[in-house]
Structures are given as C-alpha cells and as structure tokens.
Amino acid sequence: MELGAIPVGHGSAQLLTVLARAINAKAVVEVGTGAGVSGLAMTRGMAPDGVLTSIDLETMNQSAAREAFLAAGLSNRQFRLIAGAATDILPNLRDAAYDMVFVDADKLEYVEYVAQAQRLLRVGGLLVVDNALWHNKVADETNEDDETVIIREALEVIREDDGLIASLLPVSDGLLVAVKTDTQ
Ligand SMILES: C[S@@+](CC[C@H](N)C(=O)[O-])C[C@H]1O[C@@H](n2cnc3c(N)ncnc32)[C@H](O)[C@@H]1O
C-alpha cells in the first residue's frame, strides 16, 4: 500500500515529509545520507526552491542516493551531497541558516551532531533525531552500551536546552523532534 509515493510502514519517512512541509523548509541538513530514503522523504515536503544538504562518509551511499533522487525527478539544484565525516563538515555550515536538521549517522557522535544542530538552526527550525529509542535500549537503565549511553546523553542535552522544545515520537525506532525557540 502506498501513501503518496511513500510506502506505508516507513513511518518515520512519512513524518519527515510532514515535518518539512509544515515549516515549508527551504534549507535542510541531513547527517547520514544512506541510500537516500529519508532525504527523499524530506525533499517531498520541502519548498520547491529548497535545498537538501546531506552528509555521508560513504561515497557509495551518496551515489545510490543521487541515483534515487534523480530517478524520483529531483533536479541537481534541489540537493547537495557532501562526502566526509560529519564532525568535519558540519562546522563549515553557516549559523542559523537552516530550517531543519535531521540526525541519522554515527550514534557515537550524536552529542556533537546535536551541538552543531543547535548552532545551525534558525529560530523556529526543527531538530529531528532518529533512533531516539534505539531498539528500546535508551529507556532501559541497565543498558550501558556505548551507543545507548551517547544517545541518552544527546537527548539529555536537548531536554536541558531552554532554547529547544522537544517531543519524543514513538514512530519506528523513535523520532525526537525539537523546535528551536528564541529563548537562550
Ligand atoms: C542509518 S544510515 C542513514 C540512513 C538515511 N538517513 C535514510 O534513512 O535513508 C547512516 C549513514 O551514516 C553514515 N555515517 C556513519 N558515520 C558517519 C560519519 N561519522 N559522518 C558522516 N556519515 C556517517 C553511514 O555511511 C550511513 O550511510
């Protein structure tokens, strides 16, 4: 079954489309391109003149994403794929210039990604963090896996930031959505 062109069942992808559409996003940063599923979902909700900037370590993944984007009818002007380590690339992006930042790369770097997102987002922009439940390990206090501990820390940073209003959506593996406010 299909809803628009997005397969039902990929709940977080549908939600990404809805979120991007709700804020009429023109500038989105994606941390972790993968094969382009989430990127494509966001571009579906973005303004027609919007640009998705997507970062991934693996050029092979980005080639697959490029193919998927073009096959879906996107033009080269609607996306910018940057190959490299997110922690090297994110600091080069402009402060307060983005409407939405979607975090979905190395879980061990989530705290750094969140710090960069706080800087990159304009007021009213959305920080969206995938795998916020991390296979239900985040809520299990006895679990101290490195990735689980770091995701917990990243969520704590978001919760304690007075400039972010956050909500955890139990979709798929958990999607944390936070709005940047003008409170510092
Ligand atoms: C879960 S996949 C992303 C999936 C994609 N967001 C989607 O839903 O279609 C994670 C991606 O992060 C990339 N990645 C892992 N560590 C990274 C890093 N340090 N910097 C940038 N990308 C990284 C991987 O190569 C992989 O493609």
From TrEMBL:
Classification lineage: Eukaryota, Metazoa, Chordata, Craniata, Vertebrata
Keyword S-adenosyl-L-methionine listed: yes
CDD domains, A to Z: AdoMet_MTases
Protein name as catalogued: GDP-L-fucose synthase
Presence of the UniProt keyword Transcription regulation in the record: no
Keywords: Methyltransferase, S-adenosyl-L-methionine, Transferase
GO molecular function terms attached to this record: O-methyltransferase activity; S-adenosylmethionine-dependent methyltransferase activity
Family note: Belongs to the class I-like SAM-binding methyltransferase superfamily. Cation-dependent O-methyltransferase family.
Gene3D superfamilies (UniProt xref): Vaccinia Virus protein VP39
Pfam families per record: Methyltransf_3
A GO BP annotation: methylation
InterPro entries: Cation-dep_OMT, SAM-dependent_MTases_sf, SAM_O-MeTrfase
Taxonomic superkingdom: Eukaryota
